[in-house]
Amino acid sequence: MFRRCRIILLVTALAAFLPAPAQAPPAPAPAPKFVVVLDAAHGGDDLGARLGNQSEKDYTLALSVKLRSLLVARGIAVVTTRESGADLDADRRAEIANRANAAACLNLHAALVSSTSGPAVHLFISSLPPAADARFPPLRPRLFEPPVAGDPGFVPWRTAQSAWIRRSTELAGVLNSALLHAGITVTLGQTALPAIDSMACPAVAVEIAPQRQTDAASADDAGFEAKVAEALAAALVEWRADGGQFGERRP
Amino acid sequence: MIPRHQTVLFVILLLASVIMGAVLWNQLRGAHERLLRGQDSAPTQAPLVAPAEQATLMVANDADNSVEPRILTLPLPQNPEARARAVLGKLLDLYAAPDAAHPVPGGANSIAQVFLVPIAEGSGKASPTSPQLAVVNLTGAFAAGHPSGLETETLTILSICATLNANLPRVTEVRFLVDGQTRAKLAGHADLTRTYLAAEAVPRP
């Protein structure tokens, strides 16, 4: 009995010192898919602004459908946050964008242009401070190991966008260039918008301000909307060539 | 036959009645004229209850999404909360003007109150020089009448925060209420639930 136990212990001890079988080299990670999230603002009872006889929620949904068609035709995968008039809260919109691992997220808005300015597109990024000012230090992948360089670490949900401010600014720059190239007036700014503050991807709020909608101007407005959609699609193609959400390196 | 003394008494009373009626009529006319003169001299401008001082208003412009300083001379009260309300009232008066670059109806009456609350520092106690949180209580009519749009709402919020910081440097944070209650958004877009940092309110290009 004792001999059998000793043999078992000996075999176990030998097995512990034997080299482990060579592991197969890890398969190369597949290239991340370039996905664009189109978030048509408002919905449900939340009509948004009034644009003549149309509500902002319908305008942004129509723009989202049009832009999706243009992007799909250019080989870009698109995820939309809503396909109907239903309402979504800001958390659900961010959840969809974050699950899609989006390379870019456009939060679409529309408003009537004021009497003192012409038709224009307003681009906004989040007003959150960049990740360098975040409260939480980067997480360590293993105990006693240094944090990964460039890893934003743990980021609270409400301020997830803070780690992506740099790339969001660059995305706004690409959109700005494409819109200006199309002859469209553009303004740039920062805003506090819960829908994009929780997104962990380059995110820009795009507000389209067409002419005041009258019967005479409706045809011009449709042309302006189409021109804006074409310019945004061209910008996202350029953004894909620029490296998408990570660019040359992670934020 | 009426006795003579009664006739004399009747005539005297009649004369007294006529004289009293004439005096009352004259007094009535005089009072009416005084009333009219009083209406003519009614003040058309609010009386100056405080000395005029220079105030910096951070005025928004929809055309280029900018907030630019404009220096005006205004009667400003010494009380910081009244002073904050006065400068914000003037700012919203500019927006309510017909040719405003950032048109928003409402005017000065849209600011119901401004409260200044000291922010406790590291020791946990607020000192007379501690930074302050400004709580701006807007009227429901202002929120209901504000044009809906990401740019216009953002500019209103940023210009209010920047104006407070420009005139009351101790104000570092700003929160908003509407009719004394918290409200999610101003007119469907701008977030009113967060605390804004006044020093960072001016949008960076």
Summarize the structure.
The complex is a heterodimer of chains A (251) and B (205). With 251 residues, chain A is an alpha/beta fold.
Key features of this structure:
heterodimer, A: 251 residues, Aminopeptidase, two-stranded antiparallel ribbon, 6 helices, 8 strands, B: 205 residues, alpha+beta, 6 strands
Task: Tell me what you see in this structure.
The complex is a heterodimer of chains A (251) and B (205). Chain A has 251 residues and is α/β, with parallel strands linked by helices. Chain A has one domain (32-131, 147-241): Zn-dependent exopeptidases (Aminopeptidase). Chain A is 35% helix and 16% strand. Chain A contains six helices and eight strands; from the N terminus they run αβββαβαββαβαβα. Chain A has helices at 2-17, 56-73, 90-99, 165-181, 194-197, 218-241, and strands at residues 35-40, 50-51, 54-55, 77-80, 104-110, 120-126, 186-191, 203-209. Chain A has a six-stranded mixed beta sheet with strand order 4-1-5-8-6-7, sandwiched between helices. In chain A, α2 crosses α6. The radius of gyration of chain A is 25 Å and the shape is elongated. Chain B is an alpha+beta fold. Chain B has two domains: 1-42; 52-200, no CATH class. Chain B has four helices and six strands; from the N terminus they run αββαββααββ. Chain B has a four-stranded mixed beta sheet with strand order 3-4-5-6. In chain B, strands 1-2 form a two-stranded antiparallel sheet. In chain B, β1 (52-61) and β2 form a beta hairpin. The longest helix of chain B has 37 residues, at 4-40. Chain B is elongated. The mean pLDDT of chain B is 88. At the A-B interface, β7 and β8 of A face α4 of B.
